[in-house]
């Protein structure tokens, strides 16, 4: 029997903290190359570096990664590669931002001081130790679909809320002093670069973070040895992934962009493309009517065999 053919689309999740002096000069040729190579996704540029996820053919992704590695400070870029059956993005966007991951703490510099990197193979022992506090730095809707056993969920809607949460909970978390070890994790590692730098600036010395994030752990650690529970939310059309970075079981609510599982789909508040239990009370009847029209246009386009790329609502 012939070996199973790999899925056709290469997906690259990447980030690099480095000093970019002129993001505008970087943006145009980078976006032009992505479009020429048929690569889609989102890349963010800021004075602190680059972040994003892109997808395309193996050759297209290789060409874009080679271009990025030639940028200042990016030679050691180590993207997390996975595969998808279909293109997980509708368009290509290269945007200039204040931060490549928004924390809202302008004095935090991951290039100056960050926590200790922990390889996936050593992560289980660290988080199982009784003197380790484990914190999930991701957003509440991400944590809801999966996290590490015993991890603290800050229940923060955005990463910008993390500093205020830590400052409010510091005495409870650390007992009024400094815990021997604080271990933090996120999807691909970028949020933990800033989170550990933030905790170091707050006077916490023994800070650790999962190298390459959850994605690296799920690819590296066998499922039978795993301390991960559930699925991992990713910011593309795969929605969630599991061990081996295979596509998970969740879909995406097109109204609020949150993940929805089997229980959500069974709820009377779930209408495909219009609402889910998490966002039904957050939207007006007029908004839901707009989503319903967008869904109708999407189905018409699919029936004609054409892509429909409408406005994204949050």
Sheet of most strands: 5 strands, mixed
Strand content: 15-25%
Helix content bin: 25-40%
- Morphology call: globular
Structural class comes to: alpha/beta
List the secondary-structure elements in sequence, H or E: EHEEHEEEHEHEHEHEHEEEEEHH
Terminal CA distance reads 47 Å
Low-confidence stretches: 310-314
Strand order of the largest sheet: 4-1-3-2-5
Counting DSSP H or I runs of 4 or more residues, the number of helices is: 9
Overall pLDDT metric:
91
Rg, Å, rounded: 20 Å
- Number of E strands: 15
Task: Summarize this entry quickly.
It catalyses: uridine(34) in tRNA + AH2 + O2 = 5-hydroxyuridine(34) in tRNA + A + H2O. With 314 residues, the protein is α/β, with parallel strands linked by helices.
List the helices and strands and how they pair.
Layout: E1 9-17, H1 23-36, E2 40-46, E3 49-56, H2 58-69, E4 80-84, E5 92-96, E6 116-118, H3 120-128, E7 132-136, H4 140-143, E8 146-148, H5 162-174, E9 181-185, H6 190-201, E10 207-210, H7 213-220, E11 228-230, E12 232-233, E13 240-241, E14 251-252, E15 259-260, H8 262-265, H9 285-303
Parallel strand pairs: 2-5, 6-10, 7-9, 9-10
Antiparallel strand pairs: 1-3, 1-4, 2-3, 8-11, 12-13, 14-15
């Amino acid at each position: 029997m012939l070996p199973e053919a790999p899925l056709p689309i290469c997906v690259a999740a990447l980030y690099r903290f480095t000093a970019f002096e002129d993001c505008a000069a970087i943006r145009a040729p980078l976006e032009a190359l992505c479009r020429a190579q048929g690569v889609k996704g989102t890349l963010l540029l800021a004075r602190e570096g680059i972040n994003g996820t892109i997808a395309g053919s193996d050759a297209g992704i290789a060409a874009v990664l080679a271009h990025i590695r030639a940028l200042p400070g990016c030679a050691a870029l180590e993207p997390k590669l996975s595969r998808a059956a279909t293109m997980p993005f509708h368009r290509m966007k290269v945007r200039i931002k204040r931060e490549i991951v928004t924390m809202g703490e302008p004095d935090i510099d991951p290039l100056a001081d960050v926590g200790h990197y922990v390889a996936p193979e050593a992560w289980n022992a660290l988080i199982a130790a009784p003197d380790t506090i484990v914190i999930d730095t991701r957003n509440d809707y991400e944590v809801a679909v999966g996290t590490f056993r015993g991890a603290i969920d800050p229940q923060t809607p955005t990463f910008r809320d993390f500093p205020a949460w830590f400052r409010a909970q510091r005495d409870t978390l650390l007992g009024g002093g400094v815990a021997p070890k604080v271990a933090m994790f996120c999807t691909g590692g970028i949020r933990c670069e800033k989170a550990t730098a933030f905790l170091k600036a707050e006077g916490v010395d023994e800070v650790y973070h999962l190298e390459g994030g959850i994605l690296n752990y799920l690819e590296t650690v066998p499922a039978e040895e795993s301390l991960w529970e559930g699925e991992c939310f990713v910011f593309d059309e795969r929605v969630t992934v599991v061990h081996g970075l295979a596509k998970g079981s969740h879909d995406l609510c097109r109204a609020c962009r949150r993940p929805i599982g089997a229980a959500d789909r069974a709820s009377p508040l779930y209408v495909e493309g219009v609402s889910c239990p998490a966002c039904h009370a957050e939207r007006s009847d007029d908004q839901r009517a707009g989503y319903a029209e967008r869904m109708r246009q999407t189905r018409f386009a699919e029936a004609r065999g054409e892509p429909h790329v409408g406005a994204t609502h949050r």
